[in-house]
Amino acid sequence: MSSELYSKIYNFLVTAKQKYITVTLIIYQGIEKDPWILKEELRRVIHQAISSAINLYTQDSKYQ
Q1: How large is the greatest C-alpha to C-alpha distance in the chain, in angstroms?
Q2: 63 or 57: which leads in pLDDT
Q3: Alpha-carbon distance values, 7 to 3, 11, 49, 52 (Å)
Q4: Does residue 29 contact residue 12 with C-beta atoms inside 8 Å?
Q5: Rounded CA gap, 24 and 36, in Å?
Q6: Cα gap 53→34, rounded to integer Å
Q7: CA-to-CA distance for 3 and 57, rounded, in angstroms?
Q8: How far, in Å, CA of 26 to CA of 22, rounded?
Q9: Which of 20, 42, 60, 61 has the most crowded Cβ, counting Cβ within 10 A?
């Protein structure tokens, strides 16, 4: 997994306002960073970043 790509997507998820987060923007960030990334690899990176962001939201009371 590209840790740089994961970090970029994760940071976007935890810093952007929720109303601005869309699947299109997340996928675009992945393709912009690495235009030759395989679809399954991008899917794994996005899934991991979303899972980590969800864990942060459920553990941190400032997001609730």
Answers
A1: 38
A2: 57
A3: 6, 6, 8, 11
A4: yes
A5: 17
A6: 21
A7: 21
A8: 6
A9: 42
| pLDDT band with cut points at 50, 70 and 90 for residue 62 | low
Length of the chain: 64
- Helices marked H in 1-64: 3-15, 23-33, 39-59
Domain ranges of the chain: 3-63
For the stretch 4-50, pLDDT in tens is 999 999 999 999 998 999 999 999 988 998 899 999 999 999 999 99
d(CA 64, CA 54) in angstroms, rounded, equals 11
Instruction: Name the residue type at position 27.
Output: I
